[in-house]
Amino acid sequence: MDLSSLTIAAARKALDAKDFSSLELTNAYVQNIAARDKEIHAYLEVWEDSARAEAKAADERIAKGDAKPLTGIPLAIKDNILIKGRVASSASKILENYRASYDATVITKLKEQGAVFLGRTNMDEFAMGSSTENSAFGPTRNPADTSRVPGGSSGGSAAAVSGSMALAALGSDTGGSIRQPASHCGIVGLKTTYGSVSRFGLMPMGSSLDQIGPLTRTVEDARILFDAIRGNDTYDSTSLPDYPLKEKGKVVGVPRAFMKEGVDDGVKSVFEKTLEALVKGGYEVRDVDMPNLPYALPVYYIICPAEVSTNLARYDGIRYGLSSPADTIHEVYTKTRGIGFGPEVRRRILIGTFVLSSGYADAYYRKARDVRNLIRADFERAFDSVDAIALPTAPGPAFKIGEKTNDPLAMYLEDIFSVTPNLAGVPAISVPAGSVERDDKELPVGFQLVGPMRGEGTLFTIAKDIEKSR
To answer: Is-catalytic flag, 246?
Structure first.
């Protein structure tokens, strides 16, 4: 079997036709992980024995004619999604030995389908980063060029799929953490409508921003995985009622004023060629005015750290995780958090605590919240006249490991086009659109589509047309 081109849809047909078994498929991925992952470091832990046991159970289920879309399909899971009895560290020293006491809702759904879990993937610590260099356990490398980052924070999941070390994967997206690594690794990444997929069992970073979503080889696979994990959940107070996927018209809007500066020439060329292909395919492309988008990045880096500061207060050395002994409770807190958290996590906690502090909350946090509402209104107005909005996924291709480590502002600018859907709560997808050449290597470039609330159906349709045009 050719793992480099295998899809969930093709594997489903082959498994049902008995062309190969789930155990054979799982063994092929385990062998590929053993051969490749020492260099890539997509995984923090591989569950060979349990994966084989799950594959055997899936084969029995297939033999009985009880297969579902993901029965026997080998998946990788980001390290901030809880699986009962498994270590879930969020790539942080503070949770290095923490074992989950329950399953995330998405895991429960995948277990009901009979999916195979290959292991937990590397990530930026507590999902804070755009390169997977912030992991406490070392960086992940891009399979397209191992001197470069895979993107982040779901870089391990993206690299696992791109490097043929998983058929598909789950990641989480707070400000582009699925779409940006999907773009850098040449695969499909979906950020779902806020509330469409339960966050129960996802370690929170920014609770009003986080969403679990799929990383896959094709748009069809993204839809299969999305259909499996979505749905209303009583354990998640932000969960939406179930809704059908509807497809709308063929009008794509482009906020060109937002793209005037900071976009790599090669990325811009791929973006324009993709728009031309859509026009040839019968789409109308029109400019849209979204005047508040330029404020999205500063708004995000006020709201997100504020929520980080609140969510990470629970890691105190008392209740669970790492605990550093000391003479007083205050010293236990400070020692544990100082040792357990990496530099980027500490930076965002400090920023968040500052913008929420007395005398500064009005000047920063509440103003950012007001501008967030303006950004939401921009999207609502735009979707009155267009069916989807097109943007580059990231301003440039994958950059060199270490290139932006000491320049946080340069790293944050990686998110300039991807944070807006999270602030508005709308869905977005990154689909491979081409490549640019750097150092004699072809580096993937993604094309981002943003849809209205509950608009995944429209995104899947347009993204499939982009796939066909390549």
So the answer is: no
In a domain, 411, yes or no: no
- Cα 388 to Cα 184, 252, 342, 374, distances in angstroms: 22, 5, 38, 19
Q: What is the tally of structural domains in the chain?
A: 1
**pLDDT by residue (tens digit) across 273-312?**
999 999 999 999 999 999 999 999 999 999 999 999 999 9
**CATH at 221:** 3.90.1300.10
Whole-model pTM above 0.90?
Answer: yes
**What letter does residue 346 receive in the DSSP assignment?**
H
Tell me the sheet residues that pair with 430. 189, 448
116 three-class SS = strand
Q: Is the dihedral of CA 186, 192, 197, 199 positive or negative?
A: positive
pLDDT of residue 260: 87
Helical spans, DSSP H, in 141-253 = 155-162, 179-185, 219-229
Is 177 a known active-site residue? Answer: yes
**Residue 78 catalytic?**
yes
Q: pLDDT tens digits, residue range 418-438?
A: 999 999 999 999 999 999 999
Q: What are the C-alpha distances in Å from 276 to residues 20, 285, 290, 359, 429? A: 41, 9, 22, 50, 19
CA distances to 152, 220, 347, 380 from 295, rounded to whole Å, are 22, 34, 21, 17
Q: Is residue 409 part of a domain?
A: no
Catalytic site residue from 22, 78, 418, 430: 78
C-alpha–C-alpha distance, residues 181 and 144, integer Å: 12
What number is the average pLDDT over the span 181-210? 98
Full domain range(s) for residue 275? 1-291+387-398+427-470
- Given the DSSP bridges, would you call strands 188-191 and 251-254 parallel, antiparallel or unpaired? unpaired
Active-site residue (options: 130, 135, 153, 239): 153
Residue 370: burial class (beta carbons within 10 Å; 0-12, 13-18, 19+):
exposed
Q: How far apart are CA 166 and CA 3, in angstroms?
A: 9
Angle (CA) 2 444 293, round 5°: 135
The Cα angle at residue 226 between residues 40 and 246, in degrees rounded to 5: 140
User: Are residues 118 and 207 in contact, defined by beta-carbon separation less than 8 angstroms?
Assistant: no
Burial class (CB within 10 angstroms; exposed 0-12, middle 13-18, buried 19+) of 308: buried
In a domain, residue 202? The reply is yes
**261 pLDDT above the threshold of 90:** no
The residue from 90, 177, 183, 198 that is catalytic is 177
